């Protein structure tokens, strides 16, 4: 049998070579596209894997995500270690060293660099505040948030009014001293100059709000127990002033109350030392909603007098954030003092809106100092009596709050406890409390409103004091510092890969140029959409 020899023309050979060249070129282009997708994927894997290595104690106890960039050494943020860790993930996923055969999508890492980063302490703890507010965003119902924001606005408007209460009480006492001087002159036979004390000479605070008193309620309708002369009428201001000199905790807590003795060393606290700073740009200030959200975060994540969450360190964490003292007792004392001031301001508003109570104060002031015939003295005594009344009612309110009861922000007449100015001293007994207000606010609720009066800086840095102190007291975290905790980062990656198919057509000893792929990734705990 005759066989024909195979033959191929030069044209066909060149044609096949051209087809193969185009085919391999297309294969390499397709491979390059796949490598770009792989570069994107392994870049995500690397940064997510590093950010998944967050501090578990902070998350478990305070729901805060942050990576310790010192990795337990306490020697400052070491981004070489972080880059090395990402390099391990890139090697594992880029070159597939454990995979048999040839990996056509193999990528070699040329660069993995942290170019920008943000720390938990950045901008006086604003990064912490933002993350905490974000944490609460999905936990607090919208209606409750709106109520909290409105309440905070009201408290902010009334914030400085408690100072007026103290000024009024002092002015009332000063006026009585002046009236006593007039009385001594009269009793010594000297002519009493009843016009010596003018309205300008009596230091008197401006009332909290304008009040229209119902003049149909005359002074004669107020029960003064039959007293006809000033010396027959007891002056409640004297008793209240003496009582105010007692320690504030002894006024509001019974001796059986157990107060924590925990302390914190503030010598190197976050709020006292120079902090490391990130370079990932500025963070917007907290708006009213975010501030309310952070206050709710404090309620659910910080221990307080009424709620011990079992954290290491201070037991009154929330009170520390509000006051910044070095012991639980001092923080509770300062918090109660502020709470008392807040109640004084709101109780003054309530008092001045009740014409019968104002008339009672006017009648008693006239009985005590009316003999001087000096309107300035009588008026000052009236305001001092009102301030004494507000203070006494406020102490009863604080006692109720500390025992777990509720007190309305501004009380109605039916919610008022002390109804007679002449009986204020009967409420000095520490076991007596204000009336329960069914629709009132708890102790924690008042701490929420007090947080609204704090600056972002105080909230942020003191909050971080608590986190770091608690963290350092826990085993294995003794060297940790919150200004080494990373919450955001920007990473630049660079990969290389040699052509797999097109390089077969090299026409010289020179190799084809290595292909480069650059990627950029950003990760932030402040944006939970990532």
Write the layout of secondary structure elements.
Elements: H1 10-51, H2 56-62, E1 67-68, H3 79-94, E2 108-119, H4 122-137, H5 142-158, H6 161-187, H7 236-244, H8 248-252, H9 288-301, H10 317-323, H11 328-352, H12 355-369, H13 375-402, H14 443-451, H15 456-472, E3 485-497, E4 515-524
What does this structure look like?
The chain is of the alpha+beta class and 530 residues long. The chain has 15 helices and four strands. Strands 1, 2, 3 and 4 form a four-stranded antiparallel β-sheet that branches.
Termini gap: 75 Å
What general form does the structure show?
A: elongated
- Count, helices: 15
Low-confidence stretches: 191-222, 224-228
Report the portion of residues in β strands. Answer: 5-15%
Q: Oligomerization state of this entry?
A: single chain
Mean pLDDT: 81
Calculate Rg over CA atoms. 37 Å
Q: What's the total count of β strands?
A: 4
SS-based class: alpha+beta
Give the H and E element order.
Answer: HHEHEHHHHHHHHHHHHEE
Task: Indicate the percent of residues in helices.
Answer: 40-55%
Profile the largest sheet: 4 strands, antiparallel
């Amino acid at each position: 049998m005759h066989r024909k020899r195979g033959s191929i023309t030069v044209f066909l050979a060149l044609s096949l070579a051209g087809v193969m060249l185009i085919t391999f070129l297309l294969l390499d282009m397709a491979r390059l596209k796949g490598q770009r997708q792989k570069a994107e994927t392994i870049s995500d894997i690397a940064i997510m894997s590093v950010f998944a290595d967050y501090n578990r104690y902070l998350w478990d106890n305070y729901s805060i995500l942050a990576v310790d960039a010192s990795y337990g050494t306490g020697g400052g943020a070491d981004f070489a270690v972080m880059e090395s860790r990402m390099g391990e993930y890139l090697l594992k996923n880029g070159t597939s060293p454990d995979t048999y055969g040839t990996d056509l999508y193999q990528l070699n890492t040329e660069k993995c660099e942290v170019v920008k980063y943000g720390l938990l302490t950045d901008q006086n703890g604003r990064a912490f505040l933002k993350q905490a507010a974000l944490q609460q965003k999905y936990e607090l119902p919208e209606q409750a948030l709106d109520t909290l924001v409105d309440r905070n606005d009201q408290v902010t408007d009334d914030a400085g009014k408690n100072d007026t209460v103290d000024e009024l009480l002092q002015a009332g006492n000063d006026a009585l001293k002046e009236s006593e001087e007039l009385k001594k002159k009269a009793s010594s036979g000297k002519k009493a100059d009843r016009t010596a004390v003018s309205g300008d000479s009596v230091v008197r605070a401006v009332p909290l709000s304008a009040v229209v008193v119902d003049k149909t309620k005359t002074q004669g309708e107020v029960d003064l127990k039959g007293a006809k002369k000033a010396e027959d009428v007891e002056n409640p201001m004297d008793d209240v002033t003496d009582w105010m000199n007692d320690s504030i905790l002894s006024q509001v807590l019974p001796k059986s109350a157990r107060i924590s003795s925990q302390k914190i060393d503030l010598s190197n606290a976050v709020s006292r030392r120079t902090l490391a700073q990130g370079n990932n740009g500025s963070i917007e200030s907290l708006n009213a909603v975010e501030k309310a959200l952070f206050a709710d975060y404090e309620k659910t994540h910080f221990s307080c007098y009424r709620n011990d969450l079992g954290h290491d360190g201070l037991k009154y964490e929330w009170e520390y954030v509000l006051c910044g003292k070095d012991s639980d007792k001092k923080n509770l004392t300062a918090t109660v003092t502020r709470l008392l001031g807040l109640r004084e301001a709101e109780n003054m508003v309530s008092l001045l809106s009740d014409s019968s109570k104002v008339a009672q104060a006017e009648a008693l002031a006239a009985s005590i100092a009316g003999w001087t015939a000096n309107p300035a003295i009588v008026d000052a005594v009236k305001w001092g009596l009102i301030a004494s009344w507000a203070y006494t009612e406020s102490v009863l309110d604080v006692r109720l709050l500390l025992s777990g009861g509720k007190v309305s922000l501004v009380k109605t007449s039916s919610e008022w406890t002390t109804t007679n100015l002449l009986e204020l001293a009967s409420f000095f007994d520490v076991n007596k409390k204000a009336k329960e207000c069914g629709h009132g606010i708890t102790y924690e609720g008042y701490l929420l409103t007090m947080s609204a009066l704090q600056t972002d800086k105080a909230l942020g840095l003191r909050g971080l004091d608590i986190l770091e102190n608690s963290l350092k007291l826990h085993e294995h975290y003794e060297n940790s510092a919150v200004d080494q905790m990373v919450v955001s980062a920007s990473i630049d990656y660079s990969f290389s890969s040699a052509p797999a198919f097109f390089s077969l057509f090299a026409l010289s000893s020179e190799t084809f140029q290595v292909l480069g792929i650059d990627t950029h990734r950003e990760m932030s705990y402040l944006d939970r959409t990532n």
